[in-house]
Amino acid sequence: xxxxxxxxxxxxxxxxxxxxxxxxxxxxxxxxxxxxxxxxxxxxxxxxxxxxxxxxxxxxxxxxxxxxxxxxxxxxxxxxxxxxxxxxxxxxxxxxxxxxxxxxxxxxxxxxxxxxxxxxxxxxxxxxx
Length: 129
Prior knowledge:
By secondary structure, this protein is an alpha/beta fold. It has a single domain (6-120), classed as Response regulator (Rossmann fold, 3-Layer(aba) Sandwich). It is 46% helix and 18% strand. A five-stranded parallel β-sheet has the order 2-1-3-4-5, sandwiched between helices.
């Protein structure tokens, strides 16, 4: 317990996905799964049960707000980190109320991603032991 193994990244931008992948430490052996929109993100969440999900908020098909809500309905202990360029207070409040663990402003920066991963590992490590 307390170890992140699988990371799901949900973003309709291939460039954003590539940038996020570059921010994730390569030496930790994470299995990285990506999805191009909220609907695919929900399906892949069900399929892979990732330890952490990075969620863009502005996407076609199903946006990050609805996808996060659905993921938390599927697994109330799911850790969803919103990764967004939309930093309007209204959006930030809404995604946190839905249940996002935290919000990281795009573009993703390695130190912020690593800090979030470390925080989640501590949270996972302290739960249920």
